């Protein structure tokens, strides 16, 4: 039987499509991005940015080949399970967990700028500042592993963070370790950029153990290692049933509308989250401030013109200076030129960084307490933690003591009253709230 | 030979039937049915499959025969044109119409059983679909019957409810009615082993009911493309005895009421 020409004619198409599909496989290995907002804010030169990248790679490796020093107290095996490209080994064990589950929102660097970040509200968490909202520790402390696990397990309702409850425990633990790794890397970078800007001109950042480990790494590493010691253990609550609960709720309501706790200022007189809403959280503040400092395109053009004008005037003055030798003049002129170039570069960089951000800064909305949705968990314990330490990185203040053992704005019992009140709000008819005649006058 | 294409087209029905025949052996076929009404659904499925399967084989056979008999290289007979056949058109209109009408009537009970005749009982739980997870809400199983307020609180929607995500538990051999809602866009609640699939529509509370006959863990999936994270919207269905189910609910409620971190709270035992 002869195969007709038309069938043979199809062959090149089949081959071409195979080649086309195979072409999709290989690409450059991904790299960690620099913290460009920080770089632009501190006006790092290209050379300084290179130092930043080099030091970080030496301390933390690359996304495909992560590395940690023993000083970080991180478990490299767990990190390796979560890092790298997505694949399954011969036992069916899944690898590259971070890229499988997290990267499209949180980004390869953990900067919360993955491809899907721009369509989300709220934006995904940027780990690099080491600020986490929902945790059981003191306000400025890092979260414990259990806190991070809880968020992965339950997700964050009302946000795009889904629940990963069905992942096996070891995968959750690997992801927790990887989040800590990215966060520690980000915190180290912020410190490193700070150090780089403090190096005086003509000198280089000393790349010795004292600088790299003791100075850069240790701060963040110690914070993470001691997180478990900074857990806040609330005292036992008063009875939470029957008439005792009703009294507690009533006391909580008084506190809510009182001027000491001041809850209604943001969460609103109706607790619908309709109070003051013009604040930014810490992540958005940084970008917002940079944007404000930079101004609109007219302001940028004007500043650019000023830089050029000042430099030109300066150069002219140097040229006219009769006391300088020809050689000195040349050096001075060269330095003026260099400074001008750097100032223009820094200005352009700020503009470009803000332009390139995947999303504009956004103000933070106070929670609607009547929705019955609790982002950090709905256990009374969770609500207590939100009150006691506030919510790190947001305008939600702490009503507990600033330092352990100190005196807080509210007593623990008052906090429990507020917890009971907050938990009762979703079941209270908003049109008939049982409250005193003039709640704002109460205190 | 010029019969190449006719033989290629003959392969279509042969391979189609062959793949169908070997599928169950390779576990490519339907997942095990663990529900009561699943038999009816499967019966309808097979009925339509065999009907369309037979039509498919006959049609493909006819196509093969025409290709074989009238291929342009060997066939020297002149082409014959007709101006249609009234009788033939009547036959091929009435036959499918009658078949469709028969199916429409034949499936009415199955449809009514799974979509219309809702069991008269309070809902077992509420399922809120959202991008990209299943948020579940259960009533508390042991209300204090001497306290009317507590009875009220323990009902679905009351203060004493259990809130969970992606981990759907149900008691075995009991009618389950769940209130399906959506928080954002269209989703579809799909329990393949239960032969249940129902769209979740924003703004609507749609009841879904079924009865499981076998304990074990099964899949819960979203069967409506609901956004970029659709593939993530996976849950787990656990069918267990009534006693285990109640015990599990009480345990979850206690965890939810925690005012202190339990010593081993971080260790959850619901991982598979």
Overview of this protein structure:
The complex is a heterodimer of chains A (443) and B (272). With 443 residues, chain A is mostly helical. Chain A has 16 helices and 2 strands. Chain A has helices spanning 5-22, 36-41, 46-60, 76-82, 97-101, 103-106, 145-154, 169-198, 209-225, 242-257, 263-267, 282-294, 297-320, 326-356, 380-389, 412-424; strands at 87-88, 94-95. The longest helix of chain A has 31 residues, at 326-356. The model of chain A has no long low-confidence stretch (mean pLDDT 88). Chain B has 272 residues and is of the alpha+beta class. Chain B folds into 2 domains: 2-73 and 88-115; 123-261, Cupredoxins -  blue copper proteins (Immunoglobulin-like, Sandwich). In chain B, helix 1 (4-22) runs antiparallel to helix 2 (38-69). Chain B is elongated, with a radius of gyration of 27 Å. The interface between A and B is large, with 38 and 35 residues.
Got a strand count of chain B?
Answer: 10
Q: Characterize the main sheet of chain A.
A: 2 strands, antiparallel
CA-atom Rg of chain B in angstroms = 27 Å
Q: How many helical elements of chain A?
A: 16
Number of separate domains of chain B: 2
Structural class of chain A, please? mainly alpha
CATH superfamily of the largest domain in chain B: Cupredoxins -  blue copper proteins
Order of strands, main sheet of chain B, comes to 3-2-1-5-8
Helix content of chain A: 40-55%
In round numbers, the mean pLDDT of chain B is 91
Spans where pLDDT lies below 50 across 5 or more residues of chain A: none
Helical/strand content category of chain B: alpha+beta
The averaged pLDDT of chain A comes out at 88
Distance separating the two termini of chain A: 99 Å
Q: What proportion of the residues of chain B is helical, as a percent range?
A: 25-40%
Q: Strand percentage of chain B, roughly?
A: 15-25%
